[in-house]
Amino acid sequence: MTGQVRTVDGRVAGRRGQATRQKLLDCLGEMLSSSPYRDVKVIDVARKAGTSPATFYQYFPDVEGAVLEIAEEMAKEGAGLTELVSGRSWVGKAGWQTSEELVEGFLDFWRKHDAILRVVDLGAAEGDKRFYKIRMKILNSVTNSLTDAVKELQSKGKVDKEVNPAAMAGSLVAMLASVAGHQKGFQTWGVKQAELKPNLALLVHLGITGKKPTR
Amino acid sequence: MTGQVRTVDGRVAGRRGQATRQKLLDCLGEMLSSSPYRDVKVIDVARKAGTSPATFYQYFPDVEGAVLEIAEEMAKEGAGLTELVSGRSWVGKAGWQTSEELVEGFLDFWRKHDAILRVVDLGAAEGDKRFYKIRMKILNSVTNSLTDAVKELQSKGKVDKEVNPAAMAGSLVAMLASVAGHQKGFQTWGVKQAELKPNLALLVHLGITGKKPTR
DNA sequence: ACTTGTCCTGTCATGCCGTCAGCTTACCGA
DNA sequence: TCGGTAAGCTGACGGCATGACAGGACAAGT
Q: Which of B37, B174, B188 sits opposite A122 (nearest CB)?
């Protein structure tokens, strides 16, 4: 578990190498935002980074491998999403605020990383465990917190026993992720951002507490 | 808008041609189920279909083009999903049943076509209008019906005015689609199919009617 | 058998993939 | 200052996918 960055052939990367590596990752990230995943070629990334394909292969086994690196970085940042849920109240007006802020924070995060998250989502759906793990890592931070919230409410008798906390939390998080990924879609649909968020927050509140929020 | 099947170079396809074309589509569908989208190559599809790459290019501009064909076919079948919602009651026990059957039907459909739906989802998320349109076509059948249901309940004063029917319906459908796409994921999570469905149904019921169901 | 139009494939130029040997650059100790 | 050593980069190459074309195989009607 060393933080050592290594090349494919086992060398330790120095300052210069790390810079090149990072530049390649940055360029790959940009490419993913601007062109379909399927059409992202190693040679294009290398060109954009002002280097050669051979250099790319020195640091990553293939495009997928590099994507995983970017995703891993993002996952670290995603751990901060826990803040949106843990230690917050789900009662009364505070509960409604929690819902709103969760939705807001989640959508922001997704919008910020949408290109890479699309690919992670695809990989996970295709059954690739590495991508699946990363998706977990990001979503778990929120899902676990939500699961705990439901469990606690359940123990107080405020939520039906029939509710499965993990399933409920997972479903809500999946909803947020999916809606976030298709935000543009909703716009074409005639639903505006501003209208979407309260409805999502409402659903979250309903799902967690089983009750309508007091605004 | 003729139903005429044409080759890339404008000829009309005859019986034999259509058969080959269909075989290519079938094989492509299988390939998508078994290997990552990014790695599906024309040559593999052609080999699997017992023909040559050149033949493939006679009927489709590229892999993406062929995928669109499959998706279009699926979209037609997807129109039948309307049945799961339209004309159903959302009151009392019948309401709960409606929710359950919607979830059940939706998950089934998604599981049946998961490989191709993954790709459609990706294309739509990447902003490709052609894929987006197809995704709409499938989801609209359900979303519109749900939107109507909410509107009707609203007009009867049974649902808050603040709810935006389209946003609510869209969010719920997005949730169903996303959960369906990651069903395997939930399993690894420790949530079983059987537990997942009732929770989804509960969320749907809560979202549409704003009330807990009577079971 | 002959004609016609559909259908398939051999072949080719082009371009990307992934690897290697070998060159250049940076660092370090003597 | 001067090698020595390891890091860093690239040109070049065999291999494979792409996409275009022209010509041959095939089915159906006459």
A: B37
Residues B204 and B208: their CA atoms lie apart, in Å, by: 6
Q: A51: which 2 tokens?
A: 């280097």
Give the count of Cβ contacts less than 8 A between chain A and B: 150
Tokens of B151: 């509107």
Contacts of A36 (CB under 8 A, 6+ apart): B123, B126, B128
Is B136 within 8 Å of A185 when comparing Cβ atoms? yes
Measuring from the CA of residue B14 to each C1' atom, give the nucleotide at the shortest distance: C6
Residue with tokens 């549409």: B208
Q: Nearest Cβ partner of B122 from A118, A172, A175?
A: A118
Which residues in B lie closer than 8 A to residue A133 (C-beta atoms)? none
pTM: 0.91
CA B189 to chain CA centroid, Å, is 24
Contact check, Cβ <8 Å, B203/A207: yes
Q: What is the pLDDT of residues B30-88, one digit of tens each?
A: 999 999 999 999 999 999 999 999 999 999 999 999 999 999 999 999 999 999 999 99
pLDDT for position B191: 82
What residue has token string 């922001």? A108
B151 and chain A in contact, CB less than 8 A: no
CB-CB neighbours of B105 under 10 Å: 17
Measured in Å, how far apart are chain B's first and last C-alpha atoms?
47
CB B106 within 8 A of CB B57: no
3-state helix, strand, coil in chain B (%, to 5): 75, 0, 25
